[in-house]
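Problem: given the chain below (159 residues), write out its structure.
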Amino acid sequence: MGKVRKSKNRVPAISTASLPDIVFMLLFFFMTVTTIKDSPLLVENELPLADQIKKLEKKDRVIEIYVGKPAQEYTKVLGSEPKIQLDQKLAYVEDVAPYVLAELAKKPDAIRNLVTVSLKVDKNVGVGIVQDIKEELRKVNLLKVNYTTYDGNALAQMK
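Solution.
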């Protein structure tokens, strides 16, 4: 009969039973914390400051339109005149109404009357192109327009 000896130098094995739980917990954490940027900006978009702002609560009721000079890599091709970005492409003023109607058609019927068009206009863009966009929105009866800004004192910035 053999003797069973206990070795004093032997280290007990580490249990890996909880390892999958830890991996999935980390995976879920990063999935919930990470945000995905919808579309790359093709135009410069430094927003102006305003002191009387209100936050839009529900993002599913917002259609975004970016206006600004083309980004640095597109300036040689497109020039430095302000451009309109609709989703992931640059567009003309005439393309605003069909784009907004297409985006509106994707929304559920219950919230179509509550949709707001958010204009994210660079602070160095003139008012002419903004007025043209508003005219296009008026043609399709989308009258709820929001101007996105940063919180701050606009007068202090001018000095």
